[in-house]
Each structure stands twice: as structure tokens, then as C-alpha cells.
Specification:
Elements: E1 6-10, E2 15-17, E3 30-39, E4 46-51, E5 56-60, E6 66-71, E7 77-82, E8 90-99, E9 104-109, E10 112-113, E11 120-121, E12 134-136, E13 147-157, E14 171-172, E15 175-176, E16 193-195, H1 199-205, E17 216-218, E18 222-223, E19 257-258, E20 261-262, H2 270-285, E21 292-296, E22 303-307, E23 316-321, H3 324-329, E24 334-339, E25 342-346, E26 356-362
Antiparallel strand pairs: 1-13, 1-18, 2-12, 2-17, 3-8, 3-13, 4-5, 4-12, 5-6, 6-7, 7-11, 8-9, 9-10, 13-16, 14-15, 19-20, 21-26, 22-25, 23-26, 24-25
Length: 363
Amino acid sequence: MAFAEACIYDGTNDYWTRGAALTGITDAKQFTVQFWFDTANSGTSMIVMRSDVGRFDVRRESSDRLRFIAKNASNTIICDLQSDSTYASGLHHCVCSVDLSAGTAKMMVDGVDDLQAGAILTDDTIDFTDGSDFGVGANDNGNNNFIGELAAIFFQAGTYQDVEADITKWYSGGGQVDLGSDGSTPLGVQPILFVNSTAATLNASGTNLGTGGDGTVTGSLADGTDPADAGGFSTAAQTLPGLSQSAYAGTTETPTIRGSRTAPLQSFSAEAHRREIAETANLAVAGKTNNVGEVTLTANALATPVTDTRVSPQSHIGLTPVTKNALAAVPTTLVWQRLDGSFTLLHDDNTQTDRKFSYAVIG
């Protein structure tokens, strides 16, 4: 089973409803939501999840921005968040967490902060309980249907997490982190909603892996294309676009890109990959954890040297983008030369000055 099971919602008659209020839900000032979405339908308002009276509503708006709306018992909007970027097409991951008591919200899309300025965050209680149904992929009446694919749909009321600081509990290397069979891993508590089963399972039993009770599928969902599991990769070596093979002359390593993550530069067999994981775990047990830093790619250049005394020729350098321009640079950025006390990043020649990455040195 994939960490994120994708299902196709046809936009007309395929959606999941609880058929009642989510069991055990209580009013609160906090919530955490995660989901994957993939759509090619621009300019249409589409529901990801919604209570039947609209006191809680998560959708991709007609503006192509993600939007989270929550209301109090008087039906007044007390939480209104939108993404800064638009998402008209393609596969994307979103995790959002809110604490109205502290006026705090985090919205991460594809591992990067994407919360638009001007969010409404009123210190009041969200009315999660004034409703007799809850829908995924549409409201309970089958309106504003989602058109595309949804996966790993997670909702917990009453719990906040700094999902920017803890993003690797949700998303890593372009893939879905294992949230646990019941979704309890990232928050340490089983969520009230976790719709993450195959289409056959959902069609047959409306399975909710959370605590809020199973539902019913209207129509017939079909299996979609599952997002990659975090840590997954292609073993095929790829030449970095924009650089000639002569750039690697005299070396014994071949630059490769695994999935969307920068990888060690040799092509790994499955057995070699397992050995690398075991060796990394042994080093962590040995206490080698002071291993992070930051680097900004040099503008108007094809390479960025980094000096770090913790690096050796055997080190694995893991990169995580921390700006939008860095995220865009991931497919064409890789670790090249690793020496005692330094490593070099190869990348596209670009005028941008904010392609900032955090990195971890392992080994």
C-alpha cells in the first residue's frame, strides 16, 4: 500500500460523505489538514472537504488558490486563509495547521511556505459540531465537486502543529511521509478523518481510517496515480540538463537525480540503497546529529562551493528547498564533488539570488 492512496473524483457524481456528523468531533480553535491534489481544471471552485453547513470548508477556489474557511456559531468567518500561489494543474501536496488562540497559521504547499498575507485569524471557537454531515470531494449534496485526484485526506480538529518546522513529518523529497495506518504518526493522535484507501475499499465500505466513523461513496471512485512515497527514487542515471558530459571528465561518479531529490552521485542498486540506510541509522545512533546548514546557490554561475568541516568524501548531502525559487531549482541541482571539509553543488546558470537550501550532512 502506498503512503498516499489516490482516487479519481469525476467532478459530477463521485464523492464521499459521512452521512452524519463526524463521531467525537468537538468545537475548537485549532485544526490540522493534509491532502494531495491533482487537477487540470482551472477556474473552477472545487471542494476538498466541507461540513454540510459550511462552518468548515477547504477548497481549490476559482482563482486557482487553495482556501481554508472556518466560522463560529454565529456563522461569522473567523479563519480565512489562501495560498499565495495558484494551482491550476499538476500534482501538489498541502498541509495546513491553525491555532486561532495564538493567531498562528502555517500553510505549506510542496514543502514550501505558501500562506498569502492578510489572513483572518480571529481568537474565537470554530463551530465544528453544528452540522449533520461532512463531505470529501464535494459538499454533502454533491455540489462544487472536485475534478481530479485526491489522496491522503487528513483532518484533525483541536490540534495545532508548526508544520513548517515539522514538515518532514508530512512531506519529504517530493513524496508522502508514512503517517501510519491510522494517521496517528505526525500529531501523535489518531485524526478524526483520514480517507486514504484504494478506490475499491472506499466504494465498498467508505472507510475512514480516522476516529470519526466510516462514510459512503456516491458514484464510483477509480484508482488514481499515487504520489511517491517519501524516499522513493528512480535508479536510472540522468544527465543534468544544461551541462555537458565533459563537465564530469576525470571523475568516477555519474551525476544522478532520484525522483525530485538530489541524491548521492552513484546509481544505487536496491541492496546498496538498503546498506546506505543502515549505515545512516548507525551514525545517528552514534550521535552524529549536529549536521545541518544553509546554502544559497550562486547567481550567474553553474556551481556553488560549500565549506563545511563535517563533510567527507563518503558523506551524503541532503538538500531541502526553503524558498520558491529554490524549489523550482530542485530538478537541476545536485551534489557533485565531496571532499574533506567541502562539497560543490552544480546547478543552472540563473540570475536569481534567493535560491536558498537547507542541507544535512550524513556520514
